[in-house]
Structures are given as structure tokens and as C-alpha cells.
Amino acid sequence: MTVHNRGPEAALLHLLPTLWFRNLWANQTGVVKPALVANGNAIVAHHPELGEWRLECEGSPTLLFTDNETNNRRLFGGENPSGFVKDGINDFIVHGRADSVNPAAIGTKAAAHYRLDIEAGCSASVQLRLRSARTSGR
User: Shortest CA distance to 35 belongs to which of 81, 83, 68, 84?
Assistant: First the structure.
């Protein structure tokens, strides 16, 4: 993944490659809730039908986890089904709310947070690899 700073000044860019599961568990009975968990610099996806997958991230990004659940409190004034809702990653980046992402590094939505300082007219690249855990890793 390559990002460019086309502006006239150096800039800080927050790059957030994101992995999430479609929320089928909230409104359907008998659906097993999948999970995303941290493993070193990878996000490991455990799904009852798709099996285990890994999003391997170059370098040492901060891995952020929340649940792919609607923020009922913010939108409707109701209760949230989880302590960590889908806009938690935004709240962490934009508002600095560390309590909006799961410190246990587990959820159904996750992002690798890269903070990239990019000079004017320059670019930066980050390599990511999504692979089945059944493959050899080569």
C-alpha cells in the first residue's frame, strides 16, 4: 500500500488498514461470532466457516481492536451491545480516547495504525499480506 503527500508541506498521515467481520450475529440466531486477535505484528481472524486467516503487517504498527457493533448510545441514546463499538478506532485517532479500543486486543473489527511523516511530494509504502493460516507463509 503506497500513500503520497501531494501537498507543499510535510504532513503526518494516519494509515489504518482495517479488517472486520460483517455483523451477522446481532440479528440472527445461531450465528457464531467470529474474532480478530493480535499476534505480534499480525491480526489473526478466526471464523467458523472461513477458518483462520492472518493479516501480516510490516513493521510495528499499533494494532487497534473494537467490535463491529453500532454505537447505539451515540446514535439513538440506547445501550451499546459491547463496550467497544465500531467507531472506537475513529475516537482513538481523532479524539485520543484510549478507552474506545479494546486493550485485550480482541474484537470483530481491527486496524493496524501507522503514523507516517511524509515530506512534501514524497510517498511511503507499507506491505501487508492477508493469507490463510493453512498456507506455509511463503
Answer: 68
